[in-house]
Amino acid sequence: MMNLLQTLKIALRALRTNKMRSFLTMLGIIIGIAAVIAMMAVGSGASYVISQQIASIGSNIILVIPGSTTSGGLRAGFGSSQTLTSDDMKAIMTECPSVESAAPNVRTSGSVVYGNMNWSTIIMGTTPEYFDIREWGIVSGRSMVQQDVDGGSKTCLLGQTVAENLFGGDDPVGKIIRIKKVPFTVIGVLDRKGQSPQGQDQDDTIFVPFRTAQRNLIRSQQQNSVGAIMVKGKSEELLGKAEEEIKALLDQRHRITNGKEPDYSTRNLSEILAVAEQSSKAMSLLLGAVASISLIVGGIGIMNIMLVSVTERTREIGIRMAIGARRNDILMQFMTEAVLLTMIGGIIGICMGAGGAMVVSKMLEWPTLISIQSVSIAFIFSAAVGIFFGFYPARKAAQLNPIDALRYE
User: Would you write out the chain's pLDDT as a tens digit for each of its 409 residues?
Assistant: First the structure.
């Protein structure tokens, strides 16, 4: 019985004899594996981006928005009315046991000026709890404190984008800027957050104390109204319970009885982003499944070529059987050739897929991640294709009658 080394040598010699045919046979496997690797890399990159966006928002967050998402059966915009107040926020903090903290916010947009530089940005009024909920740190200066809110001080925190566009490389802390022509002192610069799940630059924002924003920057029909309330649950497990407590409390405070449409909406951000992440993974698997079709086509090509090879080498098979080769030796020889073809094709495909993923990442500025797991799966799958599609031709070769094989011309 031939050992494995001899079998490999014979298989490699057979593949070298018909180099071009071997390459063309591998082409289907190369394209299939490259497509699978590239698709999985793009999908993993998308999952990474979403997980980063989840981290940038914070954890265990519920957003309470004034106005209903539907009105009279029609969809309405978020925050389409002013139905939430600062008192609602205080009630949520004190009467919902599953809530850790809550912060109101109001927002507007406007021009900000420093010296001869100006920048149009989002201006948000909030309280110190907002930065704890968002897990948003400071890179220079100090954060907002309750005295800033209570005293209505004209101080502000800058996002990274605003700081770069107004001050370049200079330190903004202590400088005076004009927000909607009102002078404000910069007390700190926030850490970088990046894009939100909606694709907005979260660093292109200026934060001012809540009361200051209401008095000096936001023109609201109700002075006590808020644009939204951001709530943090005590834990991920209690997030659903916290949402129920908030709804029950607001229903009671706003006299929402059975059958009446609530004048507010709640959004569990963790659930929404988990669904988005799951959708990204499903899309990645779908693309991988589509790409794997070319692997099956490549496997059929290998079976076809191996059948041709068995026919061409029938006399050779007869001679080997005549000098002592057993049927298992013939089976193993042709199986080894088929598996070698697919594995070599798989290795080339992995390299091409990795290169393609890098090109996509460069061109689209989209992160791609090639994991050891995806490479291992692709390599094992290519070997499995060789075993599956190479078995029939190998079995056909092993079952040849030695006398008939020797007589074959």
Answer: 457 777 788 888 877 888 888 888 888 888 888 888 888 888 788 777 777 776 677 778 898 988 765 544 444 444 445 688 888 999 999 999 999 999 999 988 899 999 888 999 999 999 999 999 988 999 999 999 999 999 989 999 999 999 999 998 889 999 999 998 899 999 999 999 887 766 788 899 999 999 899 888 886 656 678 889 999 998 888 888 999 999 999 998 888 887 778 888 888 877 776 777 777 777 777 777 777 777 788 888 888 888 888 888 888 888 888 888 888 888 888 888 888 888 898 899 999 988 988 888 888 777 888 888 888 888 888 888 888 888 999 998 888 888 887 776 6
CB 66 within 8 Å of CB 79:
yes
Name residue, tokens 């209903």. 68
Q: CA–CA separation, 236 vs 241, rounded Å? A: 10
State the Cα–Cα distance between residues 372 and 350, nearest whole angstrom: 11
Helix axes 269-312, 372-398, angle to 10 degrees: 30
The CB density around residue 173, as the number of other CB atoms within 10 Å, is 18
Pairing of strands 117-126, 205-209: parallel
Nearest to 334 by CA among 301, 309, 353: 309
Are the C-beta atoms of 307 and 393 separated by less than 8 Å?
yes
Residue 244 phi/psi, 5-degree rounding, is: -65, -40
Q: Return the CA Rg of the chain.
A: 33
In the structure encoding, which two tokens stand for residue 230, read together?
């951001």
Burial class (CB in 10 A: 0-12, 13-18, 19+), 108: middle
- Helical H segments across 179-326, by residue range: 210-212, 239-253, 269-312, 314-322
String of DSSP letters for 38-104 = HHHHHHHHHHHHHHHHHHHH-SSEEEEEES-SEETTEE--TT-S---BHHHHHHHHHH-TTEEEEEE
Nearest CA to 397 out of 318, 300, 302 is that of 318
